[in-house]
Amino acid sequence: MSHTETHAFQTEVNQLLKLMIHALYSNKEIFLRELVSNASDALDKLRFEAVSNDALNEGESELAIQVSFDKDARTITISDNGIGMTRDEVIANIGTIANSGTKKFLENLSGDQAKDSNLIGQFGVGFYSSFIVADEVVLETRKAGAELADGTRWVSKGEGEFTLETVEKASKGTSITLHIKEDMNEFLDRFRLKNIISTYSDHINFPIKMLKTEWDEEAKVEKETAEFEQVNKATALWTQPKSEISEEDYSNFYQTISHDFNAPLTQIHNRVEGTLEYTSLLYIPEKAPFDLYDRDRRYGLKLYVKRVFIMDDAEHLMPAYLRFVRGVIDSADLPLNVSREILQSNKVVDKIRSASVKRVLDELAKIAKEDDQSRYLGFWKQFGNVLKEGLVEDFANKEKIAKLLRFATTHTGDAEQTVSLQKYLDRCKDEQEAIYYIVADSHAAAKGSPHLEVFRKKGIEVLLLSDRIDEWLVSHLDEFEGKKLKSITAADLKELAEDEAETLSEEDKQAREALTEKVKNALADAVSDVRITHRLTDSPACVVTAEGGISSHMARMMEQMGQSLPKQPPVLELNPEHVLVKKLEQMEDADKLQQWALFLLEQAQLADGEPLAEPGVFIKRMNSLLAEVM
Ligand SMILES: Nc1ncnc2c1ncn2[C@@H]1O[C@H](COP(=O)(O)OP(=O)(O)OP(=O)(O)O)[C@@H](O)[C@H]1O
Fold it and tell me: Where is this region: A (predicted)?
C-alpha cells in the first residue's frame, strides 16, 4: 500500500534554492547539464557495481540517458537506467544538506541577494538547479536490483517541503520530471534541448537519447516518432585527440564533472604510453570552492580503468595541497576491482600521482611566467594558501613550490601577495646575507612593526607574512637559491650592526653597557636579556625572541590551538638614540627607572602584537608617568 509522507526541507535548503534561482537566472539552461551529469554518474556507478554483480543490470544491456518533453503537459523528463536510489538515499541526498561545510557556507550568507549571488559561484550547482526552470519536480527512482514495488516518488515545488511515496517502478534507475514554469517555454522545444545537450554534454560517456522526429506531410510539421535516437557523441572527452577538442569542449566537460559554473583556469591533457598507459585530464579551477579548508571535504580525481568509472574523489591520486585540482585519470594498468585500500599502496598509482603533481606544478610555473601576471596572481589569491601546505607536505617538490610562492613585501607596501622569492633576490644586493621576513598576526601588524625600521633605513626588502600557515611555511623553508631565510625578530641580526659598532667610542660603549645592566636589573624576570638594538630608528624599544626560542607569534598560535607553552620572557632591545632611552640613562631613582623600563617593555610587546597580561596596570602606569611630566 502506498501512502504519502510530507517532509519539510531543512531551512538551509530553502535558502539555497532561493539564492540559486536568483543567481543562475541568466544561465538557466545549465539545469540540463546538471541533471545529465547526475544521470551519467548513476550509470557509471551501476556499470562499476555490475562488474562483480551482473544481476544489477536487470537484463538491460545498454546504459543510456533519455531526455523527452511534452509541450501540452509542459514537462521535461530526464531518465537514466543507472544505479537508482533507495527511499533512505533519496531522503539523505535530495532535500537534505548533510555536509557540515555546506551548512557553514549557508550560515555565512548575508541575506543580501546581490552579494550572496557571488558566493553561490563557489558552490556546486547540482540537482537543485531544476527549480530554476520548474515549479514542480517529480523524481521517481528505484535502486538497481531492488523489488519493482520498492520504488520511491519524491515530489516538491521547491517551497519548504517535499512528499515521499512508495511506488512501483518497472525499470531501475531514476527519472526526473520537471513541470516547467510559465515563463520558461523556450525549453519545451526539441531544437533547444538538443542544442543544450550538444553544447554541454556531448562528451558524456553514455548515449543521450531523444525521440526521433519525422516530417508529417499532411500537417506540414516535424512530428515525434516512437523511436529514440542518440543526440550526443558519447565519446569520453579525455579519449579524444587534443587537436579535436576545443577550449569550449574542455570547459564544458570541466563544468560537468565539477558542478562549478565558472570556467576553469586551464587544463592539462596528456596521454602516456609505454611501460605505463594512462590518460590524464587535469583542471585547475579559477575560483576556490567554499569548502576548500573544510577537513571533511572530499578531494581527488575521478578514476577510470579503461573507460569504466571506478570512483570519485580518488584522494590518492592528488596530494592534499593540490586538492583543488579536478579531473580524470583513465588507466589501462589497474584492475577493474581496484579499491581505495589498494590505491594507497600501488606502484602504478604512485607513478601516476607523481607525474600528475609534476604536470600541475609545471603548468603553474608556466602561467607564473606569463608577461601578464594577472592569471597567476588570480590563481594565487584563490589557492596560494593551500599551495603553501605543499612546502611542508611534499619534500620532493619543495623547490618547485618555493618558486611558485608570492609574498607581500615592504617593497610594494600593499597587502597584495605579488613578489616571488626570485624577484626578491633579483633586486637585493649580492652581499645581503639573508632573505628577511617578519611574521605577524595581520598585514598591518607586520607592516607597522618597529623591527622594520633599520631595514627601511638601509633599503632592504622584507617579506611581510601574515597568513596563518606562514609560520610553518618559514619553518620548512630554510633557504632559497642558496640564501637563508631569516626572521627580522630573531635574536641575532649582528650583520646589520657592524658598521656602527666600529665607530663607537669606548666611553659610549661603557655607557651603553651600564644602561642595559641597569634596565635588566629593574625588569628582573620580565625579560631574559636587555640589549642595545641595531634595528630601531624611530621607536625607543622592541622585543625579540631569545636565541633558540619560539617566536612570540608562534607561541600565540600554539596557544590558540590549545597548546600552551611555558612562558619565555622576551629579550628587550633599546634604541640608544631615542629621547626616552637617553632619559633612562640619566635616571637615578630606582623606582622611577623601573616604572619607565616596564612601560617601554609593555609598549614594545603591544607593538609586537602581544596582548598584555594586565592592560589595567599598563594604563595606570602610563597615566602616572604622564602626570609626572605634565
Ligand atoms: N539520477 C540520479 N541517480 C542516482 N542518484 C542520484 C541521481 N541524481 C542525484 N542523485 C544522488 O543525489 C545526490 C545529490 O545530487 P546533487 O546534484 O544535489 O549533488 P552532487 O551530484 O553530489 O553534486 P554537487 O554537490 O557537486 O553539486 C548525488 O550525489 C547522488 O547520490
Answer: 1-340
